[in-house]
Amino acid sequence: MEGLCPHRMPERRLRGTPPGTIASRINGAASRAPARGAARGAMNTLPLLSAALPLLVAAAVVVSLSACGGSTASDSSPGGAAGTASPSPTTGAAAAAVPANAIWKVVGTGWKDPGSRFHAITFADGDNGLAIGWTPDYRAAHVASTEDGGATWAEATMGVHDQGMAASAIDSPLPGKVWGVGNLGYIATSPDNGMTWTYQAEMTAGQDLNSVSFGDGDKGWAAGWQLNPTMKPAVYTAVMLHTDDGGASWKEQALGLPEERAVKLWAVRFTDAANGWAVGAINDGPSGDPLSGQGLVCHTADGGKTWEMKVAPGKTGLLGAVASIDDAHCWAVDGAGTVVSTSDGGKSWGRSTTDKNAGVCYAIAFADASNGWIAGQKTLLRTTDGGKTWAAEEAAATDEAFPADFTVYGLCCPGDGSVWACGYAKTEGGPVRAAVWHRVAQ
Length: 442
Description:
CATH architecture of the domain at 21-34 and 46-59 and 73-88 and 115-350: 7 Propeller
Number of strands: 30
CATH superfamily of the domain at 21-34 and 46-59 and 73-88 and 115-350: YVTN repeat-like/Quinoprotein amine dehydrogenase
Mean pLDDT: 77
Low-confidence stretches: 1-5, 7-92
CATH class of the domain at 21-34 and 46-59 and 73-88 and 115-350: Mainly Beta
Shape: globular
Radius of gyration: 19 Å
Strand order of the largest sheet: 1-7-6-5-4
Strand content: 35-45%
Order of helices and strands: EEEEEEEEEEEEEEEEEEEEEEEEEEEEEE
Distance between the termini: 45 Å
CATH topology of the domain at 21-34 and 46-59 and 73-88 and 115-350: Methylamine Dehydrogenase, Chain H
Helix content: under 10%
Largest sheet: 5 strands, antiparallel
Number of helices: 0
């Protein structure tokens, strides 16, 4: 069976209620973020790569601590200085420093639909953000948004489109403004931080969009794949859609990839209107299945007019999550925890591995050139040297927030020195519950 992605919609047609019904406002368990962020965060997720895992239609990042431990070795490391504050993709301001002593807290614990599992999270700054996930019956998307750094949350139900689609990936380049994409070419936007939604694109059969990223309020990109039936046998080919008018119109961008090779793009990240990275996998073998191929990185420095393709170094599987802080730094991770990175705009690449006992990795995020996190199945790893080595987040910073059984599907760093995560948690003998976590200074 093909590798499973936790935020893909089930293969069935559903009809939902009208989008944008606000359900409630609840109090969060954490205090307001200490500072307004300079650099925005972006959600990054990986597909489920094992058929033994249950089908999780909502994309989320699985975070687990029990499977993490010890530092990791780096095969090679790209050149470049680390440890400096990263400029904001939208304002050019320096991001706040990551606190030396920090703790993870659970926020927003009173969700109206606790059985849902948040699969994506995005913050435009330290105050304005939202998480999204599927309801337990997969008939609608559960949206939770905050405008005060997680002190309070508003909830809404995002109704399923007539074709059975709702957003599986989101990005918020400006406070309150959100875009979401999904399969069948689904694209929607919200002007009010996820409370109401408007569809922007016609449904395209066979085209699945798995990630969206905006370099500013107007210029955005959506990445995914589609089946090319003209090839014999039919193969998957990459899809990159672009808008320069805030989503009023979308056009496909040529990536320059060989048509005869099977390619899937799984994640895209732009730090401004020119510089972006897209990752996935490529396979020219007889199966035509990119998920069994080699990791792929695509880079543009001119807003997608031209793209440079690079097969990931070493033995690297499907790269399902990507992080970037500026035009020089990029990190991507596969499900086994192999990380590829560059600090010189893609001229050279390094490769490092995480703990072999870690669970499936789903997400990656960096606050600056030194400090980053990977989350996955019972896995929460941190680096302080730009990804050269990785170690489990200290237990003292996590024990009160994460039970033995939890999964994080989304990570983001809004630029205020904190980190956000979303997914689900399950206490012993208890039900699965949607969860949002916040890493803040003690």
